[in-house]
Specification:
Number of domains of chain B: 3
Number of helices of chain B: 12
Distance between the termini of chain B: 32 Å
Largest sheet of chain B: 4 strands, mixed
CATH topology of the largest domain in chain B: Butyryl-CoA Dehydrogenase, subunit A, domain 3
Strand content of chain B: 5-15%
Strand order of the largest sheet of chain A: 1-4-5-8
Helix content of chain B: 40-55%
Number of strands of chain B: 8
Distance between the termini of chain A: 30 Å
Structural class of chain B: alpha+beta
Shape of chain B: globular
CATH class of the largest domain in chain A: Mainly Alpha
Number of domains of chain A: 3
Order of helices and strands of chain A: HHHHHHEEEEEEEEHEEHHHH
Shape of chain A: globular
Largest interface: A-B, 39 and 44 residues
Largest sheet of chain A: 4 strands, mixed
Radius of gyration of chain B: 22 Å
Oligomer: heterodimer
Radius of gyration of chain A: 21 Å
CATH class of the largest domain in chain B: Mainly Alpha
């Protein structure tokens, strides 16, 4: 039994922490977020140079050979740094599908440039009507000779405005909510019939609503077997769920630390507000929520690393916990910061908004609890 | 990062499991499964049984007759004990006063008291709280005045668990009032209950059971050799003891098996009722409790791993008492909800093993669920209330 990180993980953690403290101030983050693309291309290149974009890919694929625990290490630090660069969209989501389902040729064409930081990509896993049900796919893929014709609408495509390549689930057969009959297609955003409506999200990131009208996709651009894409999609979403939960634990830790620090320095009625028991107990509850979430995160990362039958249950449990505790820690941090907590200028508000976004993606607390109820 | 156990640990767990399944008194396990309170003779019998096995003191070093187990072994033992529905150790001797005596006591005291604790020849109880000193323990008023080779003890201790069966009581008493801080001038004294001037009065708890007492000391003469450690340093020793008490109160292993049982029972039809597993609201609450449990389990394992690698328990250990007791009370409430009307009958005669099965009102666990719920209100109050625990975390962990 050992909860410590190995040497490689410690080095990875250390290099990200150094980058965040030396090169990624809150002011810089706001500037990148406000830019047209919503992130810094320079920073993204640095991520690729430092090998962080290679973490989850196998060594055969030119990756780092990292597992769920390594991903946890990376994302927790990204959370602490409130990173806006599109790591989730490129590496975890699009990369998560490609490394599982792409042929050698497809990997060369798309995955290698993603790892290299040269190609922007995303996974269009949301449809406007589907809420959290991955199998609810109304987008259709109709055969036309060797090619496919795609029609449909995708929502909340992370990094969608920057992406040159999209992985698009579309129905090759069956009814709208069937688990069978979902294909995964690689589509270039400059293809005829693709229109992209790019927008900012509340957490300082970018997403897009993307529609496909008679988009012609070559047969070679189907990933894996037609009609059997759901398992791959679910596996990539499970990776992403673990990843954002790790990010959330990083954010919750920062919010708790910042709240304690602020309470000690803020003087009212002639004393620091940290001397008030009503506030002390609330900060203890924030701390407890962080540590309990961290325990579940470690459990889930280890279960996913073993890839055993408990991993689905672990992901549901973790995301439920983050949904409940993340909301609580975020709201409390703002409350204890008082008037300052509700200003745009203070970083606390932006950590809170990112945490809120995380609680809403890949299933909210209720959705995951429902799966656990049995 | 991994939570795999070594081959030795796995063999150890199998040995413990075999003991509880095949050697431990089966009638005691059955009472435990039906939530029937154990009688004092039951408790003495099973403690002696486990002593004969050589496991009378899992937390003691071998030089005093303990098992010398490491933290992983202790964890596995407690987990198997709960898995079998075996009762937890009565803490007052083996977990509380024993470690104080071997840590701070003199050779004479170790020889005199430790073997009887280990064999359960003496029944100990705890004399900390007083009518005017609960969470604010340092305000205690029981006095011990020196008179030659004796202390003369006067005062009242309260909430003395199972004191009606006890032979000895360990007490925090005030030996000096002329002190700068209230925590000074308090001493740790061992007092024979069977002597003139000691009287005991029952306190009946809300579940109707006689579990705790008030103990009065009226000019009780205690030989000076019963003082543990230095006079006036009792507060320091007492605090150490409370830390032992708190980790036990979390009761993670017990909660784990109770929740498993709750989920299994939810799938069954009791007396023709529709199984509760069809009730989404109820099952969502069960699922939420299971997540809390898993978080707590891993917080406990993180603490264990930290101790096993030679480090002090990390700050995460301090939340175990609060989270553990909240979860216990949450499970108690779910058990009551599951029983519905049949949580209501209060037929004390049913708590005897020889009560005829066909005259039983409700099912065993159903009718006892409310009593457990009421009785367990205590767990967030004793050992330092959960509010006091938050004060401790605020001060010592968060530095507020």
């Amino acid at each position: 039994m050992d909860f410590s990180l190995n040497e490689v993980q410690l080095m990875l953690a250390d290099s990200i922490e150094k980058f965040v403290s030396n090169d990624y101030s809150f002011e810089a983050r706001q500037k990148y977020s406000d830019s047209a693309s919503g992130y810094s291309k320079e920073v993204w290149t640095t991520f690729a140079e430092l090998g962080w974009t290679a973490v989850p890919f196998s060594e055969d694929d030119g990756g780092f050979g990292g597992g769920p625990v390594d991903m946890m290490v990376v994302m927790e630090r990204f959370g602490r740094g409130l990173i806006v660069e599109p790591y989730l969209a490129n590496i975890v989501l699009a990369g998560g599908v490609l490394r599982r389902a792409a042929s050698a040729h497809q990997k060369d064409a798309w995955m290698s440039p993603i790892i290299g930081g040269e190609l922007q990509a995303s996974l269009a896993f949301v449809e406007p009507q589907a809420r959290y049900e991955l199998a609810d796919v109304a987008t259709t893929a109709r055969r036309d000779g060797d090619a496919w014709i795609i029609n449909g609408d995708k929502g909340y495509v992370l990094n969608g405005g920057n992406a040159e390549l999209l992985i698009v689930p579309a129905r090759t057969g069956g009814q709208q909510r069937d688990v069978e009959g979902i294909g995964l297609f690689a589509i270039k955003t400059d293809a005829a019939g693709v229109s992209v409506r790019d927008y900012a999200t509340i957490d300082g990131q970018r997403a897009a609503e993307i529609s496909f009208r008679d988009v012609r996709v070559a047969g070679d651009d189907l990933l894996g077997t037609p009609g059997e894409g759901l398992a791959t999609l679910e596996a990539a979403i499970a990776d992403a769920t673990l990843a954002v939960c790790a990010e959330a634990v990083g954010i919750m830790t920062v919010l708790t630390e910042k709240t304690i620090e602020y309470a000690k320095s803020r003087v009212q009625f002639g004393v620091p507000i940290s001397s008030f028991q009503a506030l002390q107990h609330r900060m203890v509850e924030m701390y407890t929520a962080c540590e309990q979430s961290r325990s579940l995160l470690m459990w889930a990362a280890m279960r996913c690393a073993d890839d055993d039958e408990k991993s689905a249950q672990a992901i549901h449990s973790l995301k439920y916990q983050i949904g409940v505790s993340g909301k609580r820690v975020g709201e409390e941090a703002v409350q204890i910061h008082g008037g300052m907590g509700v200003t745009w200028d203070l970083d606390v508000a932006h950590y809170f908004k990112r945490l809120t976004a995380i609680t809403l993606m890949f299933g909210n607390a209720d959705w995951h609890l429902d799966h656990l109820a049995g | 990062m991994n939570v795999t156990f070594s081959a030795d640990d796995i063999a150890f767990r199998a040995e413990v499991r075999n003991y509880f399944e095949n050697e431990f008194p089966a009638d005691i396990l059955e009472k435990q499964r039906d939530s029937i309170p154990l009688q004092p003779e039951d408790m003495i019998r099973w403690h002696k049984h486990i002593y004969e096995k050589g496991w009378g003191a899992p937390n003691w070093p071998t030089e005093y007759g303990g098992t010398g187990w490491n933290s992983v072994q202790k964890y596995l033992f407690a987990d198997e004990q709960a898995r079998a529905s075996a009762p937890p150790f009565l803490p007052f001797g083996v977990s509380m006063v024993g470690p104080i005596i071997y840590t701070y006591g003199n050779e004479e005291q170790k020889k005199r008291f430790l073997p009887d604790i280990l064999e359960f020849n003496t029944w100990w109880c705890q004399g900390y709280s007083e009518p005017g000193a609960g969470s604010d323990l340092a305000s205690l008023k029981t006095r011990a005045d020196r008179d030659g080779d004796h202390y003369v003890v006067n005062g009242t201790k309260t909430w003395t668990t199972l004191g009606q069966f006890a032979d000895w009581i360990f007490c925090l008493v005030r030996t000096s009032s002329d002190v700068a801080r209230r925590q000074e001038g308090i001493s740790f004294l061992l007092i024979d209950m069977k002597q003139a001037g000691v009287s005991i009065k029952p306190i009946i708890l809300l579940d109707g059971e006689h579990e705790v007492n008030e103990v009065h000391f009226d000019n009780v003469r205690v030989p000076v050799e019963n003082l543990v450690g230095e006079e006036g340093k009792g507060w320091t020793y007492g605090k150490v003891l409370l830390q032992h008490e708190r980790t036990g109160i979390a009761g993670v292993a017990g909660s784990k098996y109770r929740l498993q049982k709750l989920r299994a029972n939810a799938g069954k039809s009791i007396k023709g009722a529709a199984p509760l597993s069809g009730d989404r609201n109820f099952m969502r609450k069960v699922a939420a409790a299971e997540v809390e449990l898993k978080a707590l389990e891993y917080t406990e394992l993180r603490t264990l791993a930290s101790v096993a690698s030679g480090k002090a328990p990390g700050p995460e250990s301090s939340i175990l008492k609060i989270a553990g007791t909240e979860l216990r009370q949450n499970i108690d409430a779910l058990d009551v909800e599951a029983a519905a009307y049949y949580a209501l009958p209060y037929v004390r005669a049913q708590y005897a093993t020889d009560f005829p099965e066909d005259e039983y009102v409700g099912a065993h666990t159903e009718t006892n669920s409310s009593l457990v719920y009421f009785n367990d209100r205590k767990v967030s109050i004793f050992g330092g209330s959960n509010e006091i625990q938050k004060n401790i975390i605020a001060k010592h962990v968060l530095g507020l």
